[in-house]
From TrEMBL:
Stretches assigned to coiled coil: none
Gene encoding the protein: gatB
Pfam family, one: GatB_Yqey
GO molecular function terms noted in the UniProt entry: asparaginyl-tRNA synthase (glutamine-hydrolyzing) activity; ATP binding; glutaminyl-tRNA synthase (glutamine-hydrolyzing) activity; transferase activity
Higher taxonomy: Bacteria, Pseudomonadati, Pseudomonadota, Alphaproteobacteria, Sphingomonadales
Protein name: Aspartyl/glutamyl-tRNA(Asn/Gln) amidotransferase subunit B
Keyword Transferase: yes
Length: 499
């Protein structure tokens, strides 16, 4: 749960933390921002480097249309202003993994302007929300990578990432707790994955955060901030904020001053350390890139971008609640990841088809089974939904067998276990294991008569007002039928006989 009243209790009083995030998201594209080089993760070092990426003399950048399209679609997904006119600038600095000696970015005229993202403050109540402002999204090229662990005295340079297209998504300093920042990164990642503009694989570096943290007395002016670079998981973002905010409070309460600087996070110790003092923008000597014309977008391009957007997570969650009748919690769980939502919709379609129902009629059964039964079983196996041996189609067939009364809920659990082990169809398992539920009223009535005859004293007690005995009669009947009696039919017959 995010907490808007998060405070750090110092020796001299309470402190409030102020957080802004700069998220670098690698754009989904088969080639780089200004060259045709591949962008596949895990390739051999320096195997995806063109003459442009390596900054060979005379090489000119050519803008990748798909990268711009994906950035525009991302801006539209957060209701941001799309700037029809934008410009690329050179950000000049020297580093061994930056062969040009500058990075092509967008400082003054970004592609995407102000937008917003709504985060849930309580996982169990998605309506309890807070809006986090987005200041801008600009497009820029990534630098290469220094490899310090390949040689005892030298660092190697891998330029595979050099020139890869990034969207830098800059939030406003609207977050006030580690949990809010975690919720923001998770929600942003969800949106990017729905849109398809970034795969969100933080462990592979295709999405990483620069975490800006400052502290102040509640309600006072902003304090001096630090920026912790390249944090690559939601958990580490939250740890960075926790540690950095407490460190700053300790410094201020001991009479020190916070230095505006760049820091690094150490995942092993959960602490940050100083990297360098923070440079001002003028240190980079920004100026318009002379090799690139300003970028001008026409209405047809913007219309195509908007038309290509999928149903986004918030809209999908509201539809699941309003049209399918799902609880806010279930709707939130099912829409939190695009793969889960797609899996659920295939499951729902198959369940409705196989059971002869409308999707809205089958939705609650499908949602509860997916969240409670399948997720639980997969967690025990350490398997993801995408790797599940049970496909949505196989799951739909199993749920249809329950809906039709062919098998009981307890038998369905047995069937699921075998499906996860063997990948077999539910119908095959039910036939082989003899798990079909008995719905023949004649057969059930015969067993009910035997049970009532054998327990005449309890029948008298029931009719005298001891209604709790009804469960006893159901249990005895189910036991006599070895668990294969249809509980609904058993209940109906018993009620009629005992009336």
């Amino acid at each position: 749960m995010a907490d808007s009243t998060y405070r750090i209790q110092g020796a001299t009083g309470d402190w409030e933390v102020v957080i802004g995030l700069e998220v670098h998201a690698q754009v989904t594209s088969n080639s780089k921002l200004f060259s045709g080089s591949a962008t596949a993760f895990g390739a051999e070092p320096n195997s995806q480097v063109s003459l442009v990426d390596a900054a060979m003399p005379g090489m000119l950048p050519v803008l990748n249309r798909e990268c711009i399209r994906q950035a525009v679609r991302t801006g539209m997904a957060i209701d941001a202003q799309i700037n029809k006119w934008s410009r690329f600038d050179r950000k000049n600095y020297f580093y061994a993994d930056l062969p040009q000696g500058y990075q092509i970015s967008q400082l003054y005229h970004p592609l995407v302007g102000e937008g917003a993202i709504e985060i849930a403050l309580d996982d169990k109540n998605p309506e309890d929300t807070k809006t986090i402002g987005i200041e801008r999204i600009h497009v820029e090229q990534d630098a290469g990578k220094l490899m310090h662990d390949q040689h005892p005295t030298m660092s190697y340079v891998d330029l595979n990432r050099s020139g890869v297209a990034l969207m830098e998504i800059v939030s406003r300093p609207d977050m006030r707790s580690p949990a809010e920042a975690g919720a923001y990164v998770s929600k942003l990642r969800t949106i990017l994955r729905y849109v398809g503009s970034c795969d969100g694989n933080m462990d592979q570096g295709s999405m990483r955060c620069d975490v800006n943290v400052s502290v102040r007395r509640p309600g006072e002016e902003f304090g001096t901030r630090t920026e912790t670079k390249n944090v690559n998981s939601v958990r580490f973002v939250m740890q960075t904020i926790e540690h950095e905010a407490n460190r700053q409070v300790d410094v201020l309460e001991s009479g020190g001053k916070i230095v505006q600087e760049t820091r690094l996070f150490d995942p092993t110790s959960g602490t940050t350390r100083s990297m360098r003092s923070k440079e001002d923008a003028h240190d980079y000597r920004y100026f318009p890139d002379p090799d690139l014309l300003p970028l001008e977008l026409d209405d047809a391009f913007l219309e195509e971008c908007r038309a290509s957007l999928p149903e986004l997570p918030d809209a999908k969650r509201h539809r699941y609640e309003n049209e399918l009748g799902l609880s806010p919690y279930n709707a939130g769980v099912l829409t939190a990841e695009v793969e889960t939502a797609r899996w659920f919709e295939r499951l729902l379609a198959e369940t409705a088809r196989a059971a002869g129902k409308q999707p809205a009629e089958a939705a609650k059964q499908a949602a509860n089974w997916l969240i409670s039964e399948l997720f639980g079983a997969l967690n025990k196996l350490g398997t993801s939904l995408e790797e599940s041996p049970v496909t949505p189609e196989k799951g739909g067939d199993l749920l249809a067998l329950i809906a039709k009364g062919t098998i009981s809920g307890s038998a369905a659990k047995q069937v699921l276990e075998i499906m996860l082990e063997t990948g077999e169809d539910a119908g095959v398992i039910v036939e082989r294991e003899g798990l079909k539920q008995e719905s023949d009223t004649g057969a059930i009535e015969a067993e009910v008569d035997k049970v009532l005859a054998a327990n005449a004293d309890k029948v008298e007690q029931y009719k005298a007002g001891k209604e709790a005995l009804f469960g006893f009669f159901v249990g005895q009947t189910m036991k006599a039928m070895k668990g294969k009696g249809n509980p609904q039919v058993v209940n109906e017959i018993l009620k009629a006989k005992l009336a």
